[in-house]
């Protein structure tokens, strides 16, 4: 994909529409302005000898900057009618209109300037070569400034939109893809690639992890082999200097993703990187850096919250001589069941974090009852079963979604599908799905784990027990899902042994 460096010197001409029914006016204007240049760009003169021709040219050229317009042509008001067409029918208030008349009596200056949205009024006799130059310079400068303001506004709107989508990422997974997509939207016509660098060896080759447009051709080949030399130098320079790089036909952005201990590089190929593009990219890059820091902070807070949840859950389980690995496994098996049941990603993740707290209420259960090797007396069973409501009371006052879900699970994970469970004897789908899922995940793991009152059951015995109690203890749909994913559930126990 080796490319030669594209030239940034393409300079489209400024477009002037000359509307006059006098051929001599066209000839003289062409002669005077033939070598005209503004900001090192030439001038293209479009000629019309009637209002109808001018309308046609306006329809074909949306980027006309200036109109030199005669008043009297086919009709006494042809020029003024064209002004009305431009401003009202086309809704174009950017184009600069210079009214030129050889018959000022037909269109008095005060009346025309007051009633019509024109930008300059000149009698043909006063438009010497120098005045023509000056008038055109002023008109083009005004049109350029208007376009700059409009482009800046559109660019800022794109930055705001792109930044909002970037800040909307709640996880590091997918962050690079989001930034890549927004960079494509920010600079029209760009092709972009991302490099995630986790190898500190400066000699290690840089390879794209994702790409758009023609940069997809890079594939998994080392970028120094496929990028133009000057673009690869910018990419490597951005990494070495930990700074952004901008050039006429590309940009290279550098970020640090501290959560994954990676450095992120983004390279964008463009036909021409304007000064406005440069400023917009810098602004967006600043927002990306802030978003990454916020993501890191959010992840730190989430990790701290989850660590406290598991410590709390572990404390409850340790009182009954169960292990912290058990509560972790219950969370993972519950998440597996939730995903296969069809719950959304956010709910599945919350179930994974909330399910380990299912027995948190055991903190309020006396040790003599909690760790009794044999069966419980009826009185002891009443006390033992109180842990469901105790756990619910402990968690229900939290405003955190994960702890609210944990409160629901603590209260309902001993309810049975046939209505014979506790504490409220709920049945079927009256039991929240989080409780149904956690009950099955808890029983599956508890039966396969050694306890003070039993040895671990073999897999076939566990399977038989669950099948036997489908429709009694367990939701039949969830049992079917567990059986279909049995090996995945067992793999969780193998990965996190007691």
From TrEMBL:
**Which part of the chain is the Response regulatory domain?**
15-139
The HD-GYP domain covers 301-498
Record SMART domains: HDc (SM00471), REC (SM00448)
| Record-listed 4-aspartylphosphate modification sites | 70
Q: Which domain of life is it from?
A: Bacteria
Q: Which CDD domains match?
A: HDc
The answer, when asked if Nucleus is one of the entry's keywords, is: no
Going by the UniProt record, its keywords in alphabetical order are: Phosphoprotein
The protein depicted here goes by the name: DUF3369 domain-containing protein
Q: Which PROSITE patterns match?
A: HD_GYP, RESPONSE_REGULATORY
Q: Does the keyword Nucleus apply?
A: no
């Amino acid at each position: 994909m080796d490319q030669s460096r594209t030239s940034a010197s393409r300079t489209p001409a400024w477009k002037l529409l000359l509307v006059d029914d006098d051929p001599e006016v066209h000839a003289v204007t062409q002669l005077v302005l033939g070598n005209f240049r503004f900001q090192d760009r030439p001038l293209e003169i479009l000629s019309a000898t009637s209002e109808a021709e001018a309308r046609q040219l306006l329809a074909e050229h949306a980027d006309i900057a200036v109109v030199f317009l005669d008043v009297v042509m086919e009709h006494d008001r042809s020029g003024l009618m064209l002004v009305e067409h431009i401003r009202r029918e086309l809704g174009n208030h950017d184009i600069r209109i210079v009214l030129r008349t050889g018959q000022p009596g037909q269109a008095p200056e005060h009346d025309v300037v007051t009633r019509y949205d024109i930008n300059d009024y000149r009698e043909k006799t006063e438009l010497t070569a120098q005045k023509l130059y000056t008038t055109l310079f002023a008109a083009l400068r005004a049109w350029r400034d208007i376009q700059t303001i409009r482009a800046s506004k559109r660019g800022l709107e794109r930055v705001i939109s792109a930044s909002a989508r970037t800040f909307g990422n709640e996880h590091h997974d997918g962050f690079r893809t989001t930034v890549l997509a927004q960079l494509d939207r920010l600079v029209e016509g760009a092709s972009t690639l991302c490099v995630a660098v986790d190898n500190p060896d400066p000699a290690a080759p840089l390879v794209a992890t994702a790409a758009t447009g023609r940069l997809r051709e890079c594939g998994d080949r080392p970028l120094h082999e496929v990028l133009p030399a000057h673009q690869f130098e910018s990419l490597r320079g951005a990494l070495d200097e930990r700074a952004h790089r901008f050039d006429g036909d590309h940009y290279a952005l550098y970020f640090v993703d501290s959560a994954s201990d990676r450095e992120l590089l983004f390279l964008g190929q463009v036909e021409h990187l304007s000064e406005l593009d440069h400023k917009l990219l810098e602004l967006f890059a600043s927002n990306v850096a802030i978003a990454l820091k916020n993501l890191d902070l959010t992840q730190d807070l989430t990790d701290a919250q989850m660590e406290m949840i598991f410590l709390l859950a572990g404390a409850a389980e340790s009182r009954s001589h169960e292990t912290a690995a058990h509560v972790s496994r219950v969370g993972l098996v519950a998440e597996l069941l939730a995903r296969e049941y069809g719950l959304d990603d956010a709910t599945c993740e919350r179930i994974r974090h909330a399910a380990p707290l299912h027995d948190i209420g055991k903190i309020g259960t006396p040790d003599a009852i909690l760790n009794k090797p044999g069966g419980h007396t009826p009185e002891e069973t009443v006390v033992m079963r109180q842990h469901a409501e105790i756990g619910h009371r402990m968690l229900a006052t939290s405003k955190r979604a994960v702890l609210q879900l944990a409160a629901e699970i603590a209260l309902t994970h001993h309810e049975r599908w046939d209505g014979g469970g506790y504490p409220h004897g709920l049945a079927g789908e009256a039991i929240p799905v989080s409780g149904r899922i956690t009950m099955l995940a808890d029983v599956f793991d508890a039966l396969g784990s050694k306890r003070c009152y039993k040895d671990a059951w073999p897999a076939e015995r566990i399977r038989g027990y669950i099948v036997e109690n489908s429709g009694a203890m367990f939701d039949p749909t969830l049992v079917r899902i567990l059986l279909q994913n049995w090996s995945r559930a067992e793999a969780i126990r193998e990965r996190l042994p007691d």
